[in-house]
Design a protein that fits this description.
This protein is α+β, with helices and mostly antiparallel strands and 344 residues long. It folds into two domains: 92 residues; 229 residues, Bira Bifunctional Protein, Domain 2 (BirA Bifunctional Protein, domain 2), CATH 3.30.930. Helices cover 41% and strands 19% of the residues. The strands form two sheets. It has a seven-stranded mixed β-sheet with strand order 1-5-6-10-9-8-7, with helices on both faces. It has a three-stranded antiparallel β-sheet with strand order 2-4-3. A hairpin with a 4-residue loop joins strand 7 and strand 8. Helix 2 runs antiparallel to helix 4 and helix 5 packs across helix 8. The longest helix has 39 residues. The radius of gyration is 42 Å and the shape is rod-shaped. The protein binds adenosine-5'-[phenylalaninyl-phosphate].
Length: 344
């Protein structure tokens, strides 16, 4: 092939390329076209192989035409891409944005039902002067049992199926050890609540291996069960939004004497309707264990039982949450299913 033929062909390639990219409207298509011409196996490179047939004296002239055509292709690509960019920018500017449209809502978490109830109940008791006390979830046998009038081997220890870590260290099975920790660190009067997580070997629709209790303790010079009743009437009126009756049933806990179970009037049927699934027709629902602090407990914490009396109670927070929100299985509270949890 003569030098002039080659120059004609290369020039022609430049024109064909210009016509080819003219209608293209996508960056990728333009870059593909560029590669078809200027790539290693592209049309221009193929044509360059013909240079070896061109007489040496002519090569410089032909080479400069190749260079001109190559840079004209590169320039055409750059110009075309700039043009696309301008079109994009113009269409962005032309787009009208309704700035009054509401923004996209991100998913917002919320407090777990038990935490909500915990906070609410703490607030309700603080309205009548109770302060929050705390104790460790891993506690000693002394605080959980011994000082609560349950020496080693006492049959009442079976009332709570306890997880033992060693012979003297347990996962606390109730919040009552906080009574002992409070009384050993402060003198009367004492007026505390102790909400906290506790553990037992329990597992059924109303019992969970990990659950929360709220302990209460009031010690002063003249304290009686009637004061305890007033405290529960306040709690129930505020928590359930209704003035419901409270009654005490005799019961046994080694660290109180007398010991009682606190029942509240059924908030669902109010009257003991035989068809009521919540109170099973009795008209009453058990919400807490309670009683007057046993002098034996006072002896362990060096309180003068002649001078001071006190009452204590311990209630399950899941239980009162389940009663208020009609939840029939405690597992719903701990399975972490957001379809259930987001209802509260
Ligand atoms: C006690 O734990 C006593 N410490 C309460 C007490 C304190 C009595 C102070 C007197 C003076 P009891 O084992 O009954 O008592 O538990 C109290 C409440 O915890 C129960 O009424 C129940 O609502 C809740 N509860 C007990 N076991 C579980 C469990 N496994 N899952 C969920 N809630 C439970």
């Amino acid at each position: 092939m003569s030098a002039d033929d080659l120059i004609r062909q290369v020039d022609n390639l430049g024109r064909v390329f210009a016509a080819e990219i003219e209608p293209l409207a996508g960056e990728q298509e333009i870059r593909n076209a560029q590669a078809r011409y200027l790539g290693k196996k592209g049309t221009v490179s193929q044509l360059m192989k013909q240079m070896r047939h061109v007489p040496a004296a002519q090569r410089k002239r032909v080479g400069s035409v190749f260079n001109r055509v190559k840079s004209s292709i590169a320039d055409a690509v750059a110009a075309k891409l700039r043009q696309l960019e301008e079109v994009d920018k113009a269409s962005d500017l032309a787009r009208t944005i309704d700035v009054t449209l509401p923004g996209r809502q991100g998913a917002i978490g919320r407090l777990h039902l038990v935490t909500q109830v915990w906070n609410e109940v703490v607030e309700i008791f603080s309205e009548i002067g109770f302060e929050v006390a705390e104790g460790p979830q891993i506690d000693t046998d002394f605080h959980c049992f011994e000082a609560l009038a349950m020496p080693k081997g006492h049959p009442a220890r079976d009332m709570q199926d306890t997880f033992y870590i060693t012979d003297d260290v347990v996962l606390r099975p109730h919040t009552s050890p906080v009574q002992i920790r409070t009384m050993t660190s402060q003198t009367p009067p004492v007026k505390i609540i102790a909400p906290g997580v506790v553990y037992r070997r329990d597992d059924d629709p109303t019992h969970s291996p990990m659950f929360t209790q709220l302990e209460g303790l009031l010690v002063d010079e003249v304290v009686g069960l009637s004061d305890l009743k007033g405290v529960f009437l306040h709690l129930i009126r505020r928590f359930y939004g209704k003035s419901l009756e409270v009654r005490f049933r005799p019961s046994y806990f080694p660290f109180v004497e007398p010991g009682v179970e606190v029942d509240m009037q059924c908030a669902f049927c109010m009257s003991g309707n035989p068809a009521c699934r919540v109170c099973k027709g009795t008209g009453w629902i058990e919400i807490s264990g309670a009683g007057m602090v046993d002098p034996d407990v006072f002896a362990h914490v060096d309180y003068d039982a002649e001078k001071f009396t006190g009452f204590a109670w311990g209630m399950g927070l899941e239980r009162i949450a389940m009663l208020r929100h009609n939840v029939n299985d405690i597992k719903h509270l701990y399975e972490g299913d957001v379809r259930f949890l987001r209802q509260f």
